[in-house]
Design brief:
Strand order of the largest sheet of chain A: 6-7-8-3-9-10
Strand content of chain A: 15-25%
Number of domains of chain B: 2
Strand order of the largest sheet of chain B: 2-1-3
Low-confidence stretches of chain A: none
Shape of chain A: globular
Mean pLDDT of chain B: 88
Distance between the termini of chain A: 23 Å
Domain ABC transporter (chain A): 34-276
Low-confidence stretches of chain B: none
CATH architecture of the largest domain in chain B: Orthogonal Bundle
Largest interface: B-C, 92 and 93 residues
Oligomer: heterotrimer
Organism (chain A): Litchfieldella qijiaojingensis
Largest sheet of chain B: 3 strands, antiparallel
Keywords (chain A): ATP-binding, Nucleotide-binding, Phosphate transport, Transport
CATH superfamily of chain A: P-loop containing nucleotide triphosphate hydrolases
Number of domains of chain A: 1
CATH class of chain A: Alpha Beta
Structural class of chain A: alpha/beta
Distance between the termini of chain B: 54 Å
Largest sheet of chain A: 6 strands, mixed
Number of helices of chain B: 16
CATH topology of chain A: Rossmann fold
Helix content of chain A: 25-40%
Strand content of chain B: 5-15%
InterPro entries (chain A): AAA+_ATPase (IPR003593), ABC_transporter-like_ATP-bd (IPR003439), ABC_transporter-like_CS (IPR017871), P-loop_NTPase (IPR027417), PstB-like (IPR005670)
Number of helices of chain A: 11
Structural class of chain B: mainly alpha
Protein name (chain A): Phosphate import ATP-binding protein PstB
CATH architecture of chain A: 3-Layer(aba) Sandwich
Chains: A alpha/beta (281), B mainly alpha (388), C mainly alpha (418)
Number of strands of chain A: 10
Radius of gyration of chain B: 29 Å
Shape of chain B: extended
Mean pLDDT of chain A: 89
Chain lengths: 281, 388, 418
């Protein structure tokens, strides 16, 4: 048993260094979206991410799991440079998208975020109407030029987010008047309205009830046809249900990156196995 | 497929410029506020610092019988009009207090006339050419110079600028603030303790709370009307007295003390109260022995800030008559008195240009005291600040 | 003088009685306890209870008597009043000592009294508001008995000069009668307030935006106290600054561009008042901007908004109720500001839209009416209270609206935190 795990571990480690999953998911798309190599991050003196290398594939759901404080959210926020907002953060290593290092000085972080959208743990609709919440960003980005176009885009985004039928009669009520689950779908609609390539989701269902959670999980499954979705979750069942690939983080290190089915049925590292079977977390 | 980074960046250029403009604009606004402050202080220092110096001339003073009757005779004719009249007028009294002076003649540095003072400071002066030449000659001989102005700190108000000082106003301020403190501190702390520790959450309590916030925002001049109508007309407190001024200011300071005391009480964690209740203390014992001592630094800080505010207040005091001309230091809280800001106000209204520097000098003294008080409050807060 | 000595004597005797009460109460309690009887409270608490029983009613009787004398004008000789109080004190002492029994809850009794005293202190703030209201309204009513309310509100001429003659019953002697039309005063007040707001709101709000959104931590820690210094400068000092420094500069500048400005122009007090209010707006705005949850900013930034757009379109609109509320408070403060206008604005009621002319304000006229050598009963003196009443009503309304708005703002972000 121990021998077996040790053997799997060495296999896992060696293939991890290339950033590739240990076992490939045959149903998944394997065009590269984001390539990360030797990513290190410090908050002041403490190192929060250690030598992360990972390849994220387009039009998939990739789940990041691990005990709290393992660096999964921090890693997620490296992908659209939201960590820039925190004082005293230092980043080394490569995060490559579309052939460009997102951390290079020439890279405009606003342009990056335009292509890498984000949905947060707590729904954070703007204090504007439902319509404005969705229409605001496309208008600012000049994605629409006429009112009719804008209406169309708002409707499409709300439909894609599965919210249209619930809000079509009250588009001009404040976004904050919706329920928690609806607010979160509004935030998703807001994110997809700017037509990004990648959507980052930071524990998007942790503040929601089980029914809203199920709705959003279904939504992720639909949205992956258009977008690359990377989601952080503390809920392993959720990762098992929605993700094509799963990455397990522990104490700032990427321990295992694998096809989701393999990760949950036959993890290649002992730490991942212990976590998944509930020995800690 | 979506746009590339470079395409998006190109579109963003204009938006980034606008964003940068907002940043510079907001920075400029803060800079402007800072600039106002710098200009203000430079102006006050420039106008007020000369007030701390006063022209004196060395003359031969003859202490004779005649000069006791007619003080003008005490100094030589050639410098008579350059010596302060006000100082001359004090001669007879000085001779009465010191009889041994009689019959002697001494070389002394005496206060120069206010116009000489202004001339030496390079300001506008009413001295004619001959007088100016005389002053120049005295300066040549080393018999006229600007010396530190002790008069300004030791004497009361005067119609003659060279004799005007802030002492009586300062004492008036001290007495007024003592009354204010004696009234507003206990009432303020008791109110805060009641609202924070005892009051049931009912309509009356809410009304009291709204009322306190509202009191803090009522124009100060209306407190003056209250002082005039209630304290003076109704209760018969003497007009212009530190008592009525102090009471009026106390009502104004009350909300500041209440609000800061409540904040201080609220910052004492409930675990302390629970622990004290747990060992069998009654509510009052909990407050007296455990909560109040921990909240004390915060209460002190708030009180100092409240007093500093009261110290700079003028409008209500004018209404209750504390702008009187007070040359001597008042003896008790029921005598007519004036306070520093009111003295500044009176001097600012004097037509004589020499009073401009007195006014600015008084302002510098007032500002120094206020800054010292606020700094004390900040230090106190820093020193005792505790994070629970 | 005699009253003072009497009062001193009274206090001395009362103190003595209190001391006696303390020791008697404690001694009795200690004896009971020593005899082995369990008591509800500590001996010291019984002692304090007897002191309260002695002094409390006596002081109450004295205060009541004094109040009756002042309020109803009844003549009660001070000597009798004080002697009566002392008798009450003696009775209280006997009753108090008698109450020192094992089954008496001395501690609860004391606590009840303390609670009562504290509540009484809390009521003083209510009395203050009523005092202001009462004093202003009662005098204002007397003014409106002499001059019509309608004329006061709509009249455009303020000329109180002849009112002392009317007070002397010789109204006919004066060529012109006194006129109390307050419109020019309010026009002047609003003009100066408007100028102040035009300075304070943009500068204060933008400073707050810089400090809360852009400034590095060290700039912020430096700038906040600097702005607080601006807030701590007494208004009389600002008034001097406006009159001596700013007004001449404005006259010079206006002269240079061919305009004529009065030395008592409305611009100087307006600008200086604006400077005074900057820290007020900036610190309140800073608070509300900081209260906008960070998740709002992150939400906008994550959509590819620039920082400026995030601030303009998300942060400021979210903080808007708070900013408006701060501005209303600032307006209320500018309307009631006295020293700056008394020292730098004019005395002449002048209905004009030109800020370079001299104008007067409500507060200036209040001060003018109450510092002259007028009799208290004259219409001019009483007009100050009528003006004060309007000022009170306007500022009270502004304050209440502002409080309600800020409360709504806080609640909004509390409920949104799911």
């Amino acid at each position: 048993m121990n021998m077996q795990i040790a053997e799997r571990e060495s296999v896992a480690m060696s293939s991890q260094s290339a950033g590739q999953p240990v076992v490939r998911n045959d149903e998944a798309n394997h065009d590269l979206s984001i390539r990360v190599r030797d990513l290190n991050l410090w908050y002041g003196q403490t190192q929060a991410l250690k030598n992360i290398s990972i390849d994220i594939f387009q039009k998939n759901v990739t789940a990041l799991i691990g005990p709290s404080g393992c660096g999964k959210s921090t890693f997620l926020r490296c992908l659209n440079r939201m960590n820039d907002l925190i004082r005293g953060v230092r980043i080394e290593g490569l995060v490559e998208m579309d052939g460009r290092d997102v951390n290079e000085s020439r890279m405009d972080e606003v342009a990056l975020r335009r292509r890498v959208g984000m949905v947060f743990q707590k729904p954070n609709p703007f204090p504007k109407s439902i319509y404005e919440n969705v229409a605001y960003a496309p208008r600012m980005h000049d994605l629409v030029s006429r009112k009719a176009e804008q209406d169309e885009l708002v409707e499409k985004a709300l439909r894609d987010a599965g919210l249209w039928n619930e809000v079509k009669d009250k588009l001009h009520q404040p976004g904050t008047s919706l329920s928690g689950g609806q607010q979160q779908r509004l935030c998703i609609a807001r994110a997809i309205a700017v037509q990004p390539d990648v959507i980052l989701m930071d524990e998007p269902t942790s503040a929601l009830d089980p029914i809203s959670t199920a709705t959003i999980e279904d939504l992720m499954d639909k949205l992956k046809k258009q977008f690359t979705i990377i989601t952080v979750t503390h809920n392993m069942q959720q990762a098992a249900r929605v993700a094509d690939y799963t990455a397990f983080f522990h104490l700032g290190e990427l321990i295992e990156y694998n096809d989701t089915k393999t990760m949950f049925s036959n993890p290649h590292t002992k730490k991942a196995e212990d976590y998944i079977t509930g020995r800690y977390g | 497929m979506s746009q590339s980074f470079d395409e998006i960046s190109a579109q963003l250029k204009r938006r980034h410029r606008k964003s940068a403009r907002l940043k510079w604009l907001s920075m400029g606004a803060l800079g402007l506020a800072g600039l106002f402050l710098v200009i203000f202080f430079a102006d006050m220092l420039g106008k007020g610092l000369p007030a701390f110096q006063q022209a004196q001339i060395r003359v031969e003073v003859t202490y004779s019988e005649q000069s006791q009757q007619l003080p003008l005779a005490a100094v030589n004719e050639d410098v008579r009009e350059l010596v302060s009249r006000g100082w001359l007028r004090t001669l007879p009294m000085m001779m009465r207090d010191n009889p041994e002076l009689l019959g002697s003649t001494r070389q002394e540095w005496v206060l120069a006339d206010g116009q000489v003072d202004q001339y030496l400071k390079g300001h506008y002066t009413r001295l004619n050419d001959r007088q100016q030449a005389a002053v120049d000659a005295l300066v040549e001989e080393g018999r006229a110079e600007l010396k530190f102005n002790t008069t300004f700190f030791t004497r009361g108000d005067s119609k003659m600028p060279e004799l005007a000082g802030i002492m009586s106003a300062a004492m008036g301020t001290v007495m007024t603030l003592l009354v204010t403190l004696a009234v507003s501190f206990p009432i303020g702390v008791m109110t805060a303790v009641y609202l924070e520790e005892f009051a049931p959450d009912n309509r009356l309590t809410q009304i009291i709370e709204i009322n306190i916030n509202n009191l803090a925002a009522i124009p100060s001049i209306l407190f003056g009307l209250l002082g005039l109508a209630i304290f003076i007309s109704f209760f018969g407190v003497p007009r212009s007295s530190p008592l009525v001024g102090g009471l009026t200011l106390a009502l104004m300071t009350l909300p500041v003390i209440i609000i800061s005391t409540r904040t201080a009480l609220r910052s004492v964690p409930d675990s302390i109260r629970h622990a004290a209740f747990g060992v069998g203390c009654s509510r009052w014992q909990v407050v007296r022995d455990h909560v109040l001592p921990l909240a004390l630094p915060g209460i002190m800080t708030g009180s100092i800030i409240g007093l500093a505010q009261a110290m700079g207040e003028t409008a209500p005091l004018i209404i209750v008559g504390m702008v009187a001309f007070i040359p001597d230091i008042s003896a008790s809280v029921t005598d007519a008195a004036t306070v520093l800001p009111a003295q500044i106000f009176t001097w600012a209204g004097e037509p004589d240009r020499a009073f401009v520097e007195k006014t600015a000098g008084g302002i510098l003294v007032l500002l120094s005291v206020l800054i010292a008080m606020n700094a004390t409050a900040v230090v106190l807060r820093k020193k005792f600040e505790r994070r629970w | 003088m005699q009253t003072n000595q009497l009062l001193l004597l009274f206090s001395g005797v009362l103190l003595l009685l209190g001391l006696i009460a303390f020791f008697l109460g404690r001694a009795k309690a200690a004896r009971t306890r020593a005899a082995g009887t369990a008591m509800y409270a500590q001996p010291d608490q019984y002692a304090w209870f007897t002191v309260l029983a002695t002094a409390g009613p006596a002081v109450a009787v004295g205060a009541l008597g004094a109040f009756v004398m002042l309020l109803l004008g009844a003549e009660i000789p001070t000597l009798y009043l004080l002697a009566g109080s002392l008798v009450v004190a003696a009775v209280g002492l006997v009753v108090g000592v008698n109450q020192v029994r094992p089954d008496f809850h001395a501690r609860q009794a004391i606590e009840r009294v303390i609670r009562f005293i504290l509540a009484g202190a809390a009521l003083i703030s209510i009395f203050t508001t009523f005092g202001i209201l009462f004093s202003i309204v009662s005098e204002a009513v007397r003014f409106f008995q002499m001059h019509s309310f309608w004329g006061f509100i709509t009249g455009t001429t303020w000329n109180p000069g002849a009112s002392f003659l009317e007070a002397a019953g010789r109204a006919g002697d004066a060529a012109s009668t006194a006129q109390f039309g307050s419109v020019p005063l309010f026009a002047g007040t609003f003009m100066i307030t408007l100028i102040a707001m035009l300075v304070a709101i943009p500068v204060g709000l933008m400073s707050a935006i810089y400090m809360s959104e852009f400034a590095p931590a060290n700039v912020r820690t430096l700038a906040k106290p600097v702005l607080e210094v601006l807030a701590g400068i007494p208004t009389v000092v600002y008034g001097f600054f406006a009159a001596i420094t700013v007004a001449p500069v404005i006259v010079t500048v206006a002269g240079a561009v061919g305009l004529e400005a009065s030395f008592n122009n409305a611009l100087a007090p307006g600008i200086v008042m604006g400077i005074m209010i900057i820290p007020f707006i900036s610190s309140l705005s800073d608070d509300v901007i900081n209260a906008v949850p960070d998740s709002m900013r992150q939400g906008a930034l994550a959509l590819g908004m620039t920082k400026g757009e995030t601030i303009k379109h998300v942060v400021v609109p979210a903080a808007l109720p708070g900013i408006i509320s701060a501005s209303l408070l600032a307006v209320s403060r500018a309307l009631g500001e006295t020293m700056i206008v008394v020292m730098a604005a004019g005395m002449r009621p002048n209905l004009t839209a030109n800020p370079l002319e001299d104008m007067t304000t409500v507060t200036v006229r209040i001060v003018a009416a109450l510092t002259g050598d007028q009799e208290f009963e004259s219409a001019e003196t009483l007009s100050a209270f009528a003006l004060g009443l309007v000022l009170f009503a306007v500022t009270l309304t502004l304050n209440l609206v502002s409080v309600i708005m800020i409360r709504r703002f806080r609640e909004k972000y509390r409920t949104n935190n799911l």
